[in-house]
Amino acid sequence: MKAFTHAAALCLLAAASTAGAADANLGRNLAATCANCHGTNGKAVPGSGMSSLAGESKANLLQKLADFKSGDKPASIMHQIAKGYTEAQLTLIADYYAAQK
Amino acid sequence: MMLMKRRDFLKIGAAAGTMASLYGCAAGNKAGGHVVVVGGGYGGATVAKYLRMWSQGSVQVTLVERNPSFISCPISNLVIGGTKTMEDITVSYDNLQSKWGVRVIQDDVVALDAVKRSVKLAKGGSLSYDRIVLSPGVDFMFDQIPGLDNAAAQQKILHAWKAGPQTVALRQQLESMKDGGVFAIAIPKAPYRCPPGPYERACLVADYFKKNKPKSRVVILDANEDVQSKKGLFVKAWADLYKDQIEYRPNSEVKDVDVASNTAILEFDKFKADVLNVIPPHRAGNIASQSGLKLINNRWVDINWLSMESTGTPSVHVIGDAIFPAPTMPKSGHMANQHGKLAAAAIINLLAGEEPNPAPVVMNTCYSFVDAKNAIHVASIHQYDTATKLVQPVKGAGGVSAARNELEGKAALGWARNIWADMLA
Q1: How far is A1 from chain B (nearest CA, A)?
Q2: What's the number of domains chain B is made of?
Q3: Whole-angstrom Cα distance, residue B101 to residue B92?
Q4: Are residues B123 and B250 in the same domain?
Q5: CATH number of the domain that B225 lies in?
Q6: Is A7 within the bounds of a domain?
Q7: What is the pLDDT of residues B146-168, one digit of tens each?
Q8: Which of B280, B298, B315 is the C-terminal boundary of a domain?
Q9: How far is CA B51 from the centre of its chain?
Q10: Domain that holds residue B3
């Protein structure tokens, strides 16, 4: 019975992802919107002056993004871009880049 | 490294499949099939690479591109201004083939059969597809400027609005021009490719004149009633840096040209220039505008923002400058790259029998140089809105530079290196 509930929950999860609640690759897709400047999967071209995000800790990334949003961290453009994403989206993006090696 | 990843993915995939079948529900997301991509610019190169990368090589991709290498429109105004070379803005397609396994064919797609799901190639033969992505950019409506509607005229009065031989030719015209001459650039009514681009070009030509031909002038003939992008920043640059060089004339639509005398013919006026640079009105590239896809204003392809799929023609996705844009969305290389990723994610889901991501996000960053070193930007973020079914600009986000500066000039060049790598490396 326990196994059955577990299985049912798994099926529900799978159904939810196909019925459009959230895409399984949402974090990957959101992170890819940063790749134009920060490199594919967060690996910026060395010497290009852009920071690599791959492998940075989630806490660091989220702190930087929060500081851009609040204006605490001076920026030419990131203060404007960070405001375009929800907190939940920024968390998914930070999760994705923290997991890149 | 790719192989390692793919093997890991297969292991995980197999494990997930076993688990799913044990529990009696479908696991899915095993995309397969063949995708043809037409056009290897900012949109097409990106969708080709990301389809291969995100499907772990399980989706076959053929890219058809007419040019032997990629030449970037962004940064090409620096070639026209004389501080960069064609080599600086040219990138090879080799990595797409050798590293990502994209089959690159140098050819032109001349016809699309959406029912048989195949395209005909100019050099002969055809390609069949499960899904196709059209990223053809724009083609010019030379018929709107009758004097320009022939090959000889187009050799003399250049657009240089597709980077390539015309970029080099316009630079040569400027170099040959005597000091004291006039360069005139004509901008079509919006929407057109790269809204700030013509104003950037005016700045960079003026910068070249200021340093090398100080008696020469730049005249902007704008069909629009006002500057279309980064207005305050451009107007300030013209006042601060180019007071004696640049003259801006709004509501000055070029209706025709007299090629022999290098004269732009406006509705009530004429303007003779030493170098006349006319950007004609444009529409979706021919393969997108002439294949029976649903168009808006008879010029741009109407697409579904969850998948970039043509609203009227299944399995045909269209990205980049060829689409009817969402509100405030510019036709830019950066945006085309973002369309490419949205389309790649959606196509992989669709090929696996799944729905596309219901909450896509795209964003734009666009730098313009106002002289050889200083740049300005505009940025925007666009989130999918279920009520309008469009990606809508996020209010309170994005914006323009506080002021032109050298740091952004460096950022502009860093942007270029990274986006070219994101597409092609």
Answers
A1: 13
A2: 3
A3: 14
A4: no
A5: 3.50.50.60
A6: no
A7: 999 999 999 999 999 999 999 99
A8: B280
A9: 19
A10: 1-30
Q: Which of B331, B356, B381 is the last residue of a domain?
A: B356
| Look-up of token digits 């005909």 | B120
* CATH number for position A59: 1.10.760.10
Contact A81 B363 (CB under 8 A): yes
How many folded domains does chain A comprise? 1
Q: Are residues B135 and B152 in the same domain?
A: no
Q: With b meaning 16 or more CB within 10 Å and e meaning fewer, what string describes B322-356?
A: bbbbbeebbbbbbbbbbbbbbbbbbbbbbbbebeb
Q: What is the ipTM of this complex?
A: 0.91
CA distances from A37 to B59, B148, B416 (A): 26, 38, 8
Give the nearest chain B residue to A12 (CA atoms): B25
Q: Are B397 and A77 in contact (CB under 8 A)?
A: no
* Residue A8 belongs to some domain of the structure: no
In B82-179, which residue ranges form alpha helices assigned H by DSSP?
A: 94-98, 151-156, 165-176
The token pair at B113 is: 């059969």
Q: At what angle do helices B2-23 and A2-19 cross, to 10 degrees?
A: 120
In total, the C-beta contacts within 8 angstroms joining chain A to chain B are 139
Closest approach of chain B CAs to the CA of A59, in angstroms? 23
Q: Which of B24, B408, B421 sits opposite A39 (nearest CB)?
A: B421
Taking contacts as CB-CB distances below 8 angstroms, the residues of chain A near B357 are 23, 25-26, 29
**B250 to each of B89, B221, B254, how far by Cα in Å?**
31, 6, 11
Confidence of residue B31 (pLDDT cuts 50, 70, 90): confident
Determine the average pLDDT of the residues in B4-16: 37
pLDDT digits (tens, 9 = 90+) for B390-413: 999 999 999 999 999 999 999 999
CA atoms within 13 A on the CB side of A86: 9
- Over the Cα atoms of chain A, what is R_g? 17
Cβ contact (<8 Å) for A25 and B341? no
To the nearest whole angstrom, how far is the Cα of B265 from the nearest Cα of chain A? Answer: 40
